[in-house]
Hints:
disordered C terminus; single chain
Amino acid sequence: VFNILIGLMLDESLWWLASVFMIVANMLYGVANVYYYAYMSVLVQAHPTVIDARENGVTGEDLTRVEEQVGNELSTRGFVTGYCGSLIMLVATVIALTTVHEDSALLALQMVTIVSGIWWIAFAMYAFRDFKVRPGPPLPQVYSTKY
């Protein structure tokens, strides 16, 4: 969303506002990584390989090893998919920026920034759609108190 707002800055005198949006966007990126790592353990525990290991009586270090292997595999797949998507976006951006006339370079840069924001919002819908509620019992009261 902040990428789209940055891209909509049509007046060059608003560079300071674009800078503020960029700082906020980077902070929110860090928050998104926290959620990513928080969901990773839930995804690992719900993975069929880990469930099968538990049902077959695997415990202790062997279960931890299975969970780490599944977690590494899921994380690797996620990062590879993300980097492939980023590469597609980068190629599209380079093509868009190198084919425009010098007079419309700012407009091209704004359009690329807007498309980038739309790209990430579109792919974030998968997480918004599928990661609704934490599975399992409610958290203990000590973790669910409101501050």
